[in-house]
Design a protein that fits this description.
By secondary structure, the chain is α+β, with helices and mostly antiparallel strands. It is built from 11 helices and 9 strands. A 3-stranded antiparallel sheet has the order 1-3-2, with helices on both faces. Strand 7 and strand 8 form a beta hairpin. Helix 3 packs across helix 4, helix 6 crosses helix 8 and helix 7 packs across helix 8. The longest helix is centred in the last third of the chain and has 26 residues.
């Protein structure tokens, strides 16, 4: 009952916030016939990628998509100018994510688990609750100090907890990622509406073909040009390549 009230309160607050953000964001759009940003296949793929792996660095985006860093950066700047993409500095490095998709409090968590070393450590703990630092180090063949450094970060954001077992410290996943995943489903309903509004202001005629808890599939067109745009909608699962039951220990 308490969680349900929390979700309803979150949804109400978000709708109020996003309506204000819409008014501000839409002012930045310059609709020019034939120059819609997401009709460009490269920008469309970058935007889709950021919905799946938000809060990633330029190098990660470039590497995963096989696009050179200068080209990736150029397209990101275009989308930032039109407020399709937002950016923020974490530990001195810029990370990127779709505008209005991510809660400010979640940026640090998503940025952290986008790191390959952190991702592997967290997945190892998720698959083997109760492992010690040495066991994680041996399994992943990484230095003990690396395990200590990143498990401390995971513990600081509440994704894992520890239990002292004699001379060993053992790690267990918490329910936080599952809870964030649930809350994100509520947020995505409003995000879908914002994307539709943003696409329309960019001269695109969008049509939702299918919408689930995992993705939104749009048919988009401008003039005679037509294509589809599929946007993943739950990065708390997709960043780690997980299914919901995996978070729950299934």
């Amino acid at each position: 009952m308490k969680d349900e009230k929390k979700k309803k309160g979150f949804a109400k607050a978000f709708k109020q916030d996003i309506s204000r953000e819409d008014d501000i964001a839409i002012e930045k759009w310059e609709v020019k016939k034939g120059q819609s940003l997401l009709m460009n296949p490269v920008r469309r793929e970058i935007f889709r990628y950021l919905c799946e792996f938000p809060c990633n660095h330029l190098s990660g985006i470039s590497r995963d998509l096989g696009i050179t860093p200068p080209t990736t950066n150029w397209h990101l700047k275009k989308m930032i100018e039109r407020d399709l993409v937002a950016t923020k500095k974490i530990s001195g490095k810029s990370i990127f994510f779709p505008t209005n998709m991510i809660e400010d409090d979640d940026i640090e968590i998503l940025s952290l688990i986008n790191d390959d070393k952190v991702k592997h450590i967290f997945l190892t703990i998720l698959n083997g609750p109760g492992l010690s630092q040495k066991e994680i180090s041996d399994e992943l063949k990484i230095q003990h100090q690396t395990v200590i450094w990143f498990t401390n970060k995971l513990e600081n954001v509440g994704l894992i907890s520890t239990i002292e077992d004699g001379k060993y410290k053992r790690y267990y996943p918490t329910s936080k990622l599952s809870e964030l995943s649930d809350l994100h489903i509520t947020r995505m309903k409003a995000f879908r509406e914002w994307v539709i509004k943003a696409l329309k202001y960019d001269g695109i005629d969008p049509e939702v073909i299918r919408s689930t808890d995992k993705f939104i599939l749009f048919k988009v067109s401008i003039g005679k040009d037509k294509t589809t745009l599929e946007l993943p909608t739950n990065p708390f699962l997709t960043v780690l390549g997980l299914k919901k039951d995996h978070l729950l220990g299934g």
